[in-house]
Amino acid sequence: MRDPVRRNGSSDPIPVRAVRTRAALSAAFVLAAFLAGTAGAAPAEPPVVVELFTSQGCSSCPPANATLSILADRPDVLALSFGVTYWDDLGWKDTFASPQFTARQWSYARGLHHDDVATPQMVVQGRADTVGQTPSEVEPLIRAAKADLKAEPSIVFRGEHVTIAAAAARRPADVWLVRYDPRTVQVPVRRGENGGRTLPHRDVVRELTRLGAWNGSAATFSFSRSADPALRTAVLVQAAAGGPILAAAKG
Q: Could you tell me which residue, 101 or 34, shows the higher pLDDT?
């Protein structure tokens, strides 16, 4: 029996067998190109967590806010801005501040062996801090934190659940859910040290919730969806009492 034929617009018939052969070769070339492009690709590294403690009433804070905004563009960094409350009685009440965030900064003060708290302060991976008014101040701390990332347990989001893998070195820790606004929010400040200025804020933390404890074994935690779809979600696994961040992931 002759092979079935189809035409390509000319008078010459093309055997279907030949068409199939060409299609198979084409698919093989596409697959080879895909594998060549992905063979050297590595899974994304977990981010280094950079936390800024700031206040709209602090005249020294805008440069640190600008530094955090630059860091927020980096895929290898989870940048978080926490508004603190102890400037609120000096003429301007910070619109993002929370006593919970002030308490978090005090926990770091104890963990990092500081006698007091001040703004601006950038804490990198819960392990070291600086004022953070320029990116060059923070970069060495980010590089140092990256050296420890390979030992972190992995964190995987599945819908409204997050799973933390087991770790070889078991260390009790807290699991924190963070919701933050990735947009740049312009805040007109009418009084206080920054009175008359409009200050940009980015990656402002709006929710900080403890999901539970982690003891080094694999564990899954559930959480509810955010009421504000514009907010992004992250999870931190952190040693208690202002200790270092052991793992972090963006949702």
A: 101
Burial classification of residue 23, based on how many CB atoms lie within 10 Å of its CB (0-12 exposed, 13-18 middle, 19 or more buried): exposed
pLDDT value at position 44?
Answer: 66
Residue 163 corresponds to which tokens in the numbers above? Answer: 């799973």
Across the range 32-43, mean pLDDT stands at 35
Q: Give the largest Cα separation in the chain, rounded.
A: 95
Q: pLDDT for 94-150, tens place per residue?
A: 999 999 999 999 999 999 999 999 999 999 999 999 999 999 999 999 999 998 777
CA 136 to chain centre: 20
Rg (CA), the chain: 26
**What are the residues facing 15 on neighbouring strands?**
5
* Separation CA 158–CA 222 (nearest Å): 10
Neighbours of 184 (CB within 10 A): 13
User: Using CA atoms, how far apart are residues 58 and 149, in angstroms rounded to an integer?
Assistant: 33
Q: Which residue has the tokens 């924190």?
A: 176
SS3 content of the chain, % helix, strand, coil (to 5): 25, 35, 40
Cis peptide before 75 (omega within 30 of 0): no
Dist. CA 58–CA 86, nearest whole Å: 10
C-alpha 180/C-alpha 202 separation (Å) is 9
**For the chain, where are the alpha helices, taking DSSP H only?**
16-38, 61-71, 99-111, 135-146
